[in-house]
Amino acid sequence: MLYFFLSYARGPDDLFVRKFYNDLCSEVRVHAGRSHDDEVGFLDNHNIEPGQHWPQALVNAIAECSCFLALYSPAYFLSRPCGKEWKLFELRSRPSARDDSTPLPGLIPIVWLPPRELPEVARSVHYDLDVQEDDYRRRGLRQLLRLQRMHDAYIDFVSTIAEHIVAAGRTPPPRGFTDLDFEQLESAFHPAKAGPEDSGELPARFGTGQTIHFVVAAPTRAEAEAIERDGDFYGADALHWAPFGPQQPQPLREYAQKVASEFGFESLFTGLDRLADRVKVAQQYNHIVVLLVDPWSAEIAAHRERLLEYDHHRDHVSAMLVVMSAADAQTQAHSARLADLMHDTLGNNERRLDEVMLRRSVLTWPSFEADLAVVLAEARNRLVADGRVYRRPPPGDYAPRPILEGP
């Protein structure tokens, strides 16, 4: 019996999360009277076997678990994969209810790091687990786990959660469907609507830090076929570019957004035509710009012209990743020519960027995620060290400044 599914945003605290998961599994086994080797919980990087398709493994686990533990943090509610996990459990728990205020049976929120604000779907979820520890309420479970002086409080907390899980396991929600496409699910935290990711426009409200502008330089399907390039990797616009298909058919933007959310960043995506605008915005607001490049885009005259024009300007992106998928036979057959084409088109940017922020040939989706994680961590450090510092006044009306007058 799978007692719980632990939903969390990957990031720098992964080791602490795994310790909590292991401790909780041990405590659940004791309270449930299970043997020490029984699998009672699910953690994605713990339970998924090598070679297993991870979205389907998630779907199966959420379909059979008794409890869904949501590890609240700022990064959690920015993460689309976490929002999809929540949505999947929500569909299982109330498949026909449309009232978001209806409690979700089996959903247990745990504050890992207090979020700045909650999305609409989380505001109606019962938040109080009868835990009396003030440090948990103010700073979250992360603090109990990290501080040695809080060890006793942490043990009490794990025991309390285990009791909730075992009690909920006596009346689990009905088993869910396993034939759903995880990749096509809408995130519960990011309702589908026209917005900056669809129109290319910037949101009405955004400010300094915590934002990444991903600019995708890739042809459309029609443009690709016009140069006798395999069109199966492309779609109606650049944001549909899926370089790791057909085995991994998801657009590259989904991998990028997943990594960014694990670092607590909000992601904005646009095509090559808005590259210069995004660089200027990023410089003004201390944002990060990452250029994701399909080398075949330089074969398209209009794309090559934009890239060359940008390359001759002094403003430059924070990082650049050129994807040349190892699973793409046509790209590999032309890899030397495409590398030369990239050098001829973006040579100035290649010289501006160091070896950390420039990845000339990303071959697989795991290496893309790993490379992007390194890039974002370094970019954030550089913003802290070198970013523009200023304060913007809060919105509202202000009285005139007082002026001292003489006697």
Automatic annotation (TrEMBL):
Q: Which SUPFAM superfamilies would you find in this protein's record?
A: Toll/Interleukin receptor TIR domain
Domain TIR residue range list: 1-145
Q: Which InterPro entries match?
A: FxsC_C, FxsC_N, TIR_dom, Toll_tir_struct_dom_sf
Q: Which Pfam families match?
A: TIR_2
Report the Gene3D superfamilies cross-referenced here. Answer: Toll/interleukin-1 receptor homology (TIR) domain (3.40.50.10140)
NCBIfam families to which the protein is assigned, alphabetical: FxsC_Cterm, FxsC_Nterm
What is the protein's given name?
A: TIR domain-containing protein
Organism, as annotated: Dactylosporangium darangshiense
